[in-house]
Write a structure and sequence with these properties.
Elements: E1 2-11, E2 19-23, E3 30-32, H1 43-53, E4 59-68
Antiparallel strand pairs: 1-2, 1-4, 2-3
Length: 69
């Protein structure tokens, strides 16, 4: 059975590679450029994480990912 989880992709603007949230249990939130290391989470958790890191220079986006469960 496939479930839909979400990763939060963050564009910093400019030519930097997009980053993904790796961990939300510490402050500040840890980021990674490796999508395989990105934290998969439920929609509400992903939306909360995206709101927490939104600034004028960071543009978060929810990316759906199919996971086998």
């Amino acid at each position: 059975m496939n479930n839909i989880k979400f990763v939060v992709k963050v564009n910093h603007g400019g030519t930097r590679a997009p980053a993904y949230i790796q961990s939300i249990d510490r402050s500040p939130i840890q980021m990674t450029t490796d999508r395989k290391l990105a934290l998969t989470m439920g929609k509400f958790t992903a939306e909360d994480a995206a709101k927490a890191i939104t600034t004028s220079q960071r543009i978060p986006e929810l990316v759906p990912v199919r996971v086998n469960g």
